[in-house]
Amino acid sequence: METKGRNILHVKDLCVRVKTKDGYMPLVQDINFGIEKGKVLGLVGESGCGKTVTSMSILQLFNQKNMNIQGSITLKGRELNGLKNNEMRQIRGKDIAFIMQNPMNAFTPVFTVGHQFVETIRSHTSLNKKQAKKLAIEVMQYVNLPDPEKILKNYPFQLSGGMLQRVMIAMAACLHPAVIVADEPTTALDLYNQLLVLRLLDRIRSEYGTAILLISHDLGVIAEMADDVIVMQNGRIVEKANVFQLFEHPHHEYTKKLLTTRPSLQVEQQPVIHML
Ligand SMILES: Nc1ncnc2c1ncn2[C@@H]1O[C@H](COP(=O)(O)OP(=O)(O)OP(=O)(O)O)[C@@H](O)[C@H]1O
User: What CATH superfamily classification does 1-95+179-188+213-276 receive?
Assistant: First the structure.
């Protein structure tokens, strides 16, 4: 999990501190992990343990005036930590995509889904509007979204959460990023849409070799999807292991406690969904 050479994404000694009136306060510390091409790394831990802070730091989404990020975050060997906003904008979406819990937050309410999809494609490619729209439709067909032309004409609020999440995944997938950071991508969805989204992510991983950092509090999702898992508690990694090892022989007391509350989603026991 940590051999830097094979890792597409490598995080070393990450420490994130927030500025307060009493000085800097650590939110996450000593975070070390790597993800190889085509692999899924699960990140689990209770609410507030630092999962989102870790993912936002990887994507350099924090305002550097309030947040101090130390350590190294390399994507295909390139250091991301400390890059300027305009440099990160070139990388986000193209080389590393972010899928967040609430897809509504990913879209601007005042523009149509199509406008936002096409502009995202155009900001990373030399395609003109017509070509970008064609690509958007192709990718939406790839993720089995019904009637892509109609969806593109909709505003975000006109689509269901599940539909919007799949559009966001289509947007994330269309530029074949090396890494997808998916922060609780299924939490806001009903079971049917959870399954669709997980299968889509798995398809993108297997077809494009995309590495996925999958953040979830749902150990059922992690068990289905992840190759390796890291467990966080109070801003630190307390355990790292292969998924089978973690579920069968958890070492840390906190991991054992998490596993006793294990739910929920048994993907293989669900009816087959004919979409992929
Ligand atoms: N922008 C911020 N400024 C100050 N503190 C923050 C900020 N973002 C997160 N925190 C704090 O950092 C800690 C970790 O939060 P984080 O959102 O990473 O947790 P999480 O594991 O993702 O939780 P959840 O599962 O509920 O999303 C929490 O104590 C949170 O209050």
Answer: P-loop containing nucleotide triphosphate hydrolases (3.40.50.300)
